[in-house]
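Re: weekly structure request thread

Next one in the queue (107 aa):
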Amino acid sequence: MVSESDIIPIPGQIVRIVRGRDAGKYCVIVDIMDSHFVKVADGDRRKFDRAKKKNVSHLELHTEISVEVKNSIDETGKVTNGKLRFAIAKFLEEKDSDLRKGESVDG
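Done, posted below.
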């Protein structure tokens, strides 16, 4: 079984903020500062140019990694805000459709 502390943050990974003023919002990791801090952005309120420094323990790390965002960061060192918004929207859409499938099977 994998616990939250076993998941290593990766650029392009989708996260949910659990502490702070942005609690409950989804973002994408755009930079890893050290073992305790990462920079996150959502492309909307928190743009890539002004990514927020967050403590990893204040984030819920999901296993979903946006390939588009990861490749863009690896190749150029930056990513467009549109790609960040798209990655989050795609993740939330998949999550929502999975919940609907579960409801139809269970309910």
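The two ends are 28 Å apart (CA to CA). The mean pLDDT is 88.
Next request, please.
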